[in-house]
Design a protein that fits this description.
10 strands, single chain, alpha/beta, 6-stranded mixed β-sheet
Amino acid sequence: MGYLYFDESIQERGEFIVGAFVYSDQDLSPAVDAAISKLGLVPKVDEYKSSAKMQGNKQSQQLRVAIYGLLRSTRIAVLVLPSRERASIGAEAAKALSKLIEANGLALERHAAFFDEGIEIPDSQIEALSERANGGCQIYTNQDSRLTSGIQVADLAAHYAGTVLAAQMGIATKKVKAGVNSGYDPDLEIELGFEIWARLRYAFFKQSREIDDDIDSSDVIGMATLNVRGFGLFVSDLCGSELSKAADQRFGTCYLGCIH
């Protein structure tokens, strides 16, 4: 059985929303609760929220690190749509979920999908997903992320993906030092969006490289570049051309080789 958690990041400056699915073959909620307890916080009361102030709050920073550790053990897919279509996010997420399950070979087992509070999915789509062959996907909407704490991992994924897309669009320009073990000069300043993408790219759902692919095996870059479109990237038809292009340029393919 698989577990999927969904949350969204609304980027008003860029006029877009990034929703993130995180997938695991284990229920993530117990692991999130354990991470919260370890920091002296109270599970089901305290939680990680990407919107919370991090600067000067060591406990929140430590929790973010712990949640990121869990995120790295999952697989990720993102949905992009315009912020003006906020009311459509549930319906668009349900469409993306159906495609995600089919494209990534997950249709042979049963799944449970948990959506954060405020995300409404039409009954007809819930029914269609739950009635899929081989057990379908049980949908749980309007979940409190303090109680269904696996959603907190999706919160971080959506926040990070939103930052990455904002950087791609030239909206977020914050820079951070490369740091030790980065492959760069530790004091080199690099774009935050690039730094996040460099770490997250391995976790995205992607098309596998087929043996009969018509990529020249001597093309090192091509052989290490996999398609994410339709596997880990879902761009809503509601998007305009500029937003669609930016999402595809950033998330549409994934180079798995060294980028130093």
